[in-house]
Amino acid sequence: MPALESLLLADTLVALTVGGAFRLAGATDLADLCWALGTIVAVGPAVGWVLGALRRGQAGVDLIAVLALAGTLAVGEYLAGSLIALMLASGRTLEAAARRRASHDLRALLEHAPRTARRRTGTEVRMVPLGEVAVGDLLVVGPGEVVPVDGIVVRDPAVLDESVLTGEPLAVRRAPGRSVRSGAVNAGGAFELRASATERDSTYAGIVRLARQAGAQSAPVVRLADRYAAWFLPLTVAVAGLTWLVSGSAVRAVAVLVVATPCPLLLAAPVAVVSGLSRASRRGVVIRDGGALENLGRARTLLLDKTGTLTGGRPRVLDVIATHGWQPSQVLRLAASLDQYSPHVLARALVDEARERGLRLSVPSDMSEEPGRGAVGTVAGRRMCVGRLDLGVDKPTWARAADNRAVLDGAAVVWLSVDGHPVGAVLLRDPLRHDAPRTLRRLRAAGIERLVMLTGDRAEPAREVGAVLGLDEVRAGLSPADKVAAVRAERDRAVTVMVGDGVNDAPALAAADIGVAMGARGSTASSEAADIVLTADRVDRLADAVTIAVRSRRIAVQSALGGMALSLAAMAAAALGLLPPAAGALLQEGIDVAVILNALRALGDDRASRTALQPSTAALIHRFAAEHDDLQYVLETVRGAADRLSDGPGPEALAAVREVHRLLTERLLPHEHAEEHELYPALASALGGPEATATMSRAHVEIDRLAHRIATHLTLAGPEGHLAPEQLDDLRACLYGLHTVLRLHFTQEEENYFSLAQ
């Protein structure tokens, strides 16, 4: 009971302080009285805690404290008893503060769940309680509404946001006759649904039940102090009893109990744990329970969701492809202009990308949007359409190539048509977080032995992410129940952490030994079901949390074992009669101070685990990271020019290569040279020397070489000339090679360098 622990702490502190004041004033009897009262006050709660533990079949560290308190009272060592009482009260209060965790009440899950449904009977549509919906009922799901029960789409297609169920941010289209799961959100127009399950038997209700069951079945955490007390307690009692038996002196036995007072267990271990909690909170990691911190420090298996955890959780523009006579920037600008009033997740991605590139958007007129197909409107006097493209076999060659790239890259495609003719395509994909690779390397260095991805996404993009990150196993297409089963299977082998951000992850988070929620943009349900919440939208905070937990637990173990080792030495001296109770109490307090000071080291930063950056270096990283975003257009132009060469050495191909040369000369190469002479020297001191950036410098040399080779081809063509056929193969290889090197180089810098900055 937190109130009892707080009251006991206040009483013991007052008794010790007032007794100290009387001792300084020379009133020894009054001092002893105050200290004796403080000791007696602590005996009652301590006995209650011991009896409660014994009823649960445990004999923990509190039993040693009761014996020590009784021993000090028996031999008149009231100061020692008062100090032990204060240590006991402080330890229990610290543990109570560290043990408070949020209730797994699944409030967000329940708030999201619909309670009514629109049931259609003939031409009449009535709102009815969800419990009245029967299998076979015809329901109407309006725009923005949650699908109330599992069912089959009738008549019109449905456009759904299933991120609540799968975590995948892209909307999906369900044709008539396809099944739909409850919990998905209608992201299109109204559609009709034939119920195939009742409320109780539907998917979303099952998720709520799974989370409740998994949370109820989570094993209780055993205190670190109690684990060590399991052997320290019988040893202490045995030494004290043997001393009394052999020497016949009760004073020696009490002296053994006094110096065996388990303050390293009662206080030092909780101090280290609470210090770790404080340290984690300063890194944007909220750990709700000291036991969760201890368990995290012992974890060996880490299970991760993909979307929103390893990836950003929202689609971003991967590439822009344009037909002959059009530029990628034109395609993106017009598509974003038409889409800027659409609430669709892909439309938002287009608009955000256009604005990041500084493109000026036009105001569309006569705009309309057909759910599942896209937006139509007039921009700059021309009729345009952004969305799906249904040309079938009549697609032009460049459009079929764009489709192929989308399949190979696991991307979605948004097409731009002008006056009925396709002119460009925008490829979008949920990108890997830049800090994910470094995070997983740090996790392995911290002691995580097995990394597994559990995702509801398709197998192809999941396997690609797993290959890039070097995961031990990838399991795709999982339902929430499948994830819970996978978590339980892993728990049978090792202490297991589950990381996720969606409502669909909440049951798995609750089932794991430690659930970690990406709380910055994740669902409230996942945060409610988790033991740890990452408040910053950075997955590297997970590595920070594990590193802090491992270090805090190591310091707690050091403090406990070191203090007990010193206590064992003092017990031996007391047993031999070399250490009377009064001197033993003073020695024990010295041991206590030493181990507590050691435990407070958990408040500090582990410099060896993190790269320290100067503010000026961090500013440089932010500057060059922003330039990377601006230079994505250059990469698209390089690839586009290489594609144009496939049609022959015409004037359009030459113009495209000249545009590439201009962008390389004016934008890309100055950026690379500035990195080489400004950023890399600044990073060298933080990363241990210039060798840390040597391979990246070699990439700069290769970029310069390819840029020079392209310039030489333009010289060979002449200012008014044309590309010769014999130039095409080498020039195409240079452009594709430059595009590949730049993509790899940018990715390496973003993962290895830019992710260092906060």
TrEMBL record:
<protein>
    <submittedName>
        <fullName>Heavy metal translocating P-type ATPase</fullName>
    </submittedName>
</protein>
<dbReference type="InterPro" id="IPR001757">
    <property type="entry name" value="P_typ_ATPase"/>
</dbReference>
<dbReference type="Pfam" id="PF00122">
    <property type="entry name" value="E1-E2_ATPase"/>
</dbReference>
<dbReference type="GO" id="GO:0016887">
    <property type="term" value="F:ATP hydrolysis activity"/>
</dbReference>
<keyword id="KW-0186">Copper</keyword>
<comment type="similarity">
    <text>Belongs to the cation transport ATPase (P-type) (TC 3.A.3) family. Type IB subfamily.</text>
</comment>
<dbReference type="InterPro" id="IPR036412">
    <property type="entry name" value="HAD-like_sf"/>
</dbReference>
<dbReference type="GO" id="GO:0005524">
    <property type="term" value="F:ATP binding"/>
</dbReference>
<feature type="transmembrane region" description="Helical">
    <location>
        <begin position="253"/>
        <end position="274"/>
    </location>
</feature>
<feature type="domain" description="P-type ATPase A">
    <location>
        <begin position="112"/>
        <end position="211"/>
    </location>
</feature>
<dbReference type="Pfam" id="PF01814">
    <property type="entry name" value="Hemerythrin"/>
</dbReference>
<keyword id="KW-0479">Metal-binding</keyword>
<dbReference type="GO" id="GO:0046872">
    <property type="term" value="F:metal ion binding"/>
</dbReference>
<keyword id="KW-0472">Membrane</keyword>
<dbReference type="InterPro" id="IPR008250">
    <property type="entry name" value="ATPase_P-typ_transduc_dom_A_sf"/>
</dbReference>
<keyword id="KW-1133">Transmembrane helix</keyword>
<keyword id="KW-0187">Copper transport</keyword>
<feature type="transmembrane region" description="Helical">
    <location>
        <begin position="63"/>
        <end position="89"/>
    </location>
</feature>
<keyword id="KW-0813">Transport</keyword>
<dbReference type="InterPro" id="IPR023214">
    <property type="entry name" value="HAD_sf"/>
</dbReference>
<feature type="transmembrane region" description="Helical">
    <location>
        <begin position="228"/>
        <end position="247"/>
    </location>
</feature>
<dbReference type="InterPro" id="IPR023299">
    <property type="entry name" value="ATPase_P-typ_cyto_dom_N"/>
</dbReference>
<dbReference type="GO" id="GO:0015086">
    <property type="term" value="F:cadmium ion transmembrane transporter activity"/>
</dbReference>
<feature type="transmembrane region" description="Helical">
    <location>
        <begin position="560"/>
        <end position="579"/>
    </location>
</feature>
<dbReference type="InterPro" id="IPR051014">
    <property type="entry name" value="Cation_Transport_ATPase_IB"/>
</dbReference>
<keyword id="KW-1278">Translocase</keyword>
<dbReference type="InterPro" id="IPR012312">
    <property type="entry name" value="Hemerythrin-like"/>
</dbReference>
<keyword id="KW-0547">Nucleotide-binding</keyword>
<keyword id="KW-0067">ATP-binding</keyword>
<keyword id="KW-1003">Cell membrane</keyword>
<dbReference type="InterPro" id="IPR023298">
    <property type="entry name" value="ATPase_P-typ_TM_dom_sf"/>
</dbReference>
<feature type="transmembrane region" description="Helical">
    <location>
        <begin position="6"/>
        <end position="26"/>
    </location>
</feature>
<dbReference type="InterPro" id="IPR018303">
    <property type="entry name" value="ATPase_P-typ_P_site"/>
</dbReference>
<dbReference type="InterPro" id="IPR059000">
    <property type="entry name" value="ATPase_P-type_domA"/>
</dbReference>
<feature type="transmembrane region" description="Helical">
    <location>
        <begin position="33"/>
        <end position="51"/>
    </location>
</feature>
<dbReference type="Pfam" id="PF00702">
    <property type="entry name" value="Hydrolase"/>
</dbReference>
<dbReference type="GO" id="GO:0006825">
    <property type="term" value="P:copper ion transport"/>
</dbReference>
<dbReference type="InterPro" id="IPR027256">
    <property type="entry name" value="P-typ_ATPase_IB"/>
</dbReference>
<feature type="domain" description="Hemerythrin-like">
    <location>
        <begin position="620"/>
        <end position="756"/>
    </location>
</feature>
<dbReference type="GO" id="GO:0005886">
    <property type="term" value="C:plasma membrane"/>
</dbReference>
<keyword id="KW-0812">Transmembrane</keyword>
<keyword id="KW-0406">Ion transport</keyword>
